[in-house]
Every structure is written in C-alpha cells, then in structure tokens.
C-alpha cells in the first residue's frame, strides 16, 4: 500500500474539485432550460401567457427579460425558466 503525502493529497483534491466544478458547468450549459407553464401558480398569479394580446407589450421589450436573442429567454420573474419573447404578464414594464 503506497502512502499519499500531504502535497499529493492537496493536488489530487484540488484537481478533483476543479474537475467537478467545470463538469457541472458544462452539464448546465447543455441542459434544456424549462419553459414557464402558464398554469403554474406563479405564472397564473402574474397572468402570464405565451402570446401577448396587448399591442406593443411583450416579454421581448420588458425590463425583466435577461437576454436579447431567441424565441425563449430567461426572465428575472421566473428564475430557472424561460418565457416566450412574444409572451406577456401583468408585471410587464417597458425596457428603457
């Protein structure tokens, strides 16, 4: 049985921690982000819909949207989920 000295242990631990961190970041980047379900309690409370019926108001021009591209984008009101760029909710606020 070989002995593992302190220096080797720290190198191995550090490399393992870095590998796990980078691996989880890569997995999250490739994972499909869930879309907001309009029937969920939070979406219902905000009256979220995938297609806006209010002219000139949609998620694409709302201050809460967190991306400038794509049909589905992250929204600050729905962490970890994406909203339709054409969607709308009662918290809509014009982007400056």
TrEMBL record:
The keyword Transport applies. It comes from the Bacteria. GO terms for molecular function: 4 iron, 4 sulfur cluster binding; electron transfer activity; metal ion binding. The keyword Iron applies. Residues 30-96 form the High potential iron-sulfur proteins family profile domain. Residues 1-31 form the signal peptide. Keywords: 4Fe-4S, Electron transport, Iron, Iron-sulfur, Metal-binding, Signal, Transport. GO terms for biological process: aerobic electron transport chain. InterPro entries: High_potential_FeS_prot, HIPIP_sf, TAT_signal, TAT_signal_bac_arc. Specific class of high-redox-potential 4Fe-4S ferredoxins. Functions in anaerobic electron transport in most purple and in some other photosynthetic bacteria and in at least one genus (Paracoccus) of halophilic, denitrifying bacteria. This is High-potential iron-sulfur protein.
């Amino acid at each position: 049985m070989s002995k593992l000295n302190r220096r080797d242990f720290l190198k191995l631990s550090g490399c393992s921690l870095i590998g796990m961190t980078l691996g989880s970041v890569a997995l999250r980047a490739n994972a499909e982000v869930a879309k907001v379900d309009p029937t969920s309690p939070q979406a219902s409370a905000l009256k979220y819909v995938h297609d806006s019926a209010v002219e000139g108001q949609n998620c694409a021009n709302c201050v809460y949207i967190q991306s400038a591209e794509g049909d589905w984008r992250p929204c600050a009101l729905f962490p970890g989920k994406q909203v339709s760029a054409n969607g709308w909710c009662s918290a809509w606020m014009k982007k400056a």
